Amino acid sequence: MTPFAYRRAGSVAEAIAAAEHGAAILAGGTNLLDLMKGDVVRPTQIVDIARVPGLRDIEFLPDGAVRIGALVRNSDLAHHETFAANFPAVAEALLSGASAQLRNAATVGGNLMQRTRCSYFYDRSSACNRRDPGAGCDARDGENRLHAVLGWSEHCIATHPSDFCVPLVAFDAVVEIAGGQGPREVALADFHLLPGATPQRETVLAPGELIVAVRLPAAGAGFAGHARYLKIRERTSYAFAVVSAAAALRFENGAIAAARIALGGVAAKPWRAPAAEAALVGRKPDPAAFAAAAGLALAGAQPSGDNEFKIELARRLVARALRVAAAGTPARPAALPGSVLDMGAAA
Amino acid sequence: MSHSISLRVNGETRAISVHDPRVTLLDLLRETLDLTGAKKGCDRGQCGACTVLVDGRRVNSCLILAVACDGADVLTVEGLAAGPALHPVQAAFVEHDALQCGFCTPGQIMSAVGLILEGRADDAERVREAMSGNLCRCGAYAGITQAVLAAQRQLAEARTGAAA
After folding, report:
1. What average pLDDT does this structure show over B54-80?
2. CA atoms within 13 A on the CB side of A115
3. Which domain holds residue B132?
4. Subunit contact A237:B123, Cβ cutoff 8 A
5. What SS3 state is found at A205?
6. What letter does residue B87 receive in the DSSP assignment?
């Protein structure tokens, strides 16, 4: 690990000032320290924001929205009773990610800022445009069965690894940002960038900006009775998604009044599927409707390597997520969050 | 630059100088405080052998900077037993043969203590899921699951008894 100077920020303003001078922001550290140990990133200054006041609250706003401070730990959010009751798919996604130890340390802001787990990005001896712009992409002709099938470019085929971000984007989450130029807000759907020719630009954050909160509008809670997150992994627990899907439905008179669908593990950002959502409105919750929606959700998908299977896998997972969402959110959270092995009769 | 921190470790408050901010909590425990119970397995947050409780919550000590822990309350496996009497989780691991080589055991035990404090894993499936951050190369998982459930029952009964 490259030597660095460490300082603790006492306020958001101090953190911004340090970040503007090139300091890396440390919160839970679960991803940053891992990257530093692998020499993937080599900050020479670190500003620790863990004790900055005001970033740890889960607030229910008068309009029904919920505002989640950037430093709220993953486990605290997932187990917050009112939050989990209103946004069960978000809680399920959080609990399907990482391990209990990591969820106790990892923060909401850090989850959005985590880097891809592409093994070529992690391996300093491999060419990676995301790590070293212009170096090339060894994943293109490498082990790429887990790489992107949507929104990728010749320059980068990495995926964003977050579970949490998938239902967040489905429920129109907004990212609250602080920076030297003042505060601003960005829809989570626009927060992460597709690689294009500049995969090193991963988010819209400018140098010196930091996430202070994530806000979920009230409308998302209207889906609480029929909201699930499903995740295909190579082992049942403690693994990143091969593909994942958040699905949420709202019914009126037995027909679907509104639908929310997003995918994980398929692109460099959490992938919302608005055409699939629109196609479900007015339909009965039957296999034909779900299959049609799943087809639309993967429209335009292209293999970036040995990963054509992910397209059909994702299609089937979306249909299945819609089916289990239609069956209803379980009264008690699943024993194996997000697992297709724990769907009971609905699966 | 050296950083002075204060840590409460297994009930004892210590003033410590951290000479290099790269030192993790795990390295501080093992190399400076001679508490070698927490193990360095992968050193990347993947195996759980370094699990300790910080302010009552189980975490991977390999992914926390020691300097960031100023003021924290740390519990390691060395702080569990009351004198010669094993902690109920330790006793249950012995009773249920929940180990073979023992390398992962301090992390498994601290993770189990954290899990029981969380109070949400009340059946074998949920225990397995909640313990997935602790790998055991010897594959003692069946015994570990039994030990965690047994210790959890015993601690719950002890609480009920104390309240009665």
Report:
1. 98
2. 22
3. 88-163
4. no
5. coil
6. P
pLDDT computed for residue A343 by the predictor: 60
The complex scores an ipTM of 0.97
Say yes or no: B107 and B133 in one domain: yes
Cα atoms in the Cβ-side hemisphere of radius 13 Å centred on A182: 1
CA distances from A200 to A173, A188, A303, B22 (A): 24, 18, 22, 26
**pLDDT band, residue B160 (cuts 50/70/90):** confident
Is A334:A237 a contact under the CB 8 Å cutoff? no
Is residue B162's pLDDT more than 80?
no
Chain centre distance of CA A262? 10
Residue A43 burial (CB count, 10 A): 18
Q: Answer for the pair A270, A148: CB distance below 8 angstroms, yes or no.
A: no
The partner residue sitting opposite A237, judged by closest CB among B65, B123, B132, is B132
pLDDT at B164 exceeding the cut of 90: no
Distance CA B161, CA B157 (A): 6
* Dihedral sign for Cα atoms in the order A86, A87, A92, A94: negative
Query: A299 is written with which tokens?
Result: 């429209």
CATH number at residue B148: 1.10.150.120
Task: With H, G, I as helix, E, B as strand and everything else as coil, classify residue A232.
Answer: strand
Mean pLDDT of the residues in chain B:
97
pLDDT given at position A315 = 98
Q: Best mutation site among B6, B59, B111 for testing chain A: the one with the most A CBs within 10 Å?
A: B59
Residues of chain A with pLDDT under 50: 345
Q: Which domains does chain A have, with CATH numbers?
A: 5-51 (3.30.43), 222-346 (3.30.390.50)
- What CATH code is carried by the domain that includes residue B71? 3.10.20.30
Quote the pLDDT of residue A341. Answer: 87
Q: How far apart are CA A281 and CA B93, in angstroms?
A: 54
User: Helices (H), strands (E): how many in chain B?
Assistant: 5, 5
Residue B7 lies in a domain: yes
What CA–CA distance (Å, rounded) separates B81 from B37?
13
**Single-letter code of the amino acid located at B54:** V
- Write out the H or E segment, with its range, that includes residue B146: helix B141-163
Q: Which of A36, A56, A71, A104 is the best residue to mutate to test the B interface, defined by the most B CB atoms within 10 Å of its own CB? A: A104
Residue appearing with tokens 């991963």? A202
Whether A74 and A97 have beta carbons less than 8 Å apart is answered as: yes
Structural contact between residues A154 and A141, judged by C-beta atoms closer than 8 angstroms: no
Report which of B22, B41, B61, B136 is spatially closest to residue A101, judged by C-alpha positions: B61
Closest in B48, B59, B128 to A104, CB measured: B59
Domain count, chain B: 2
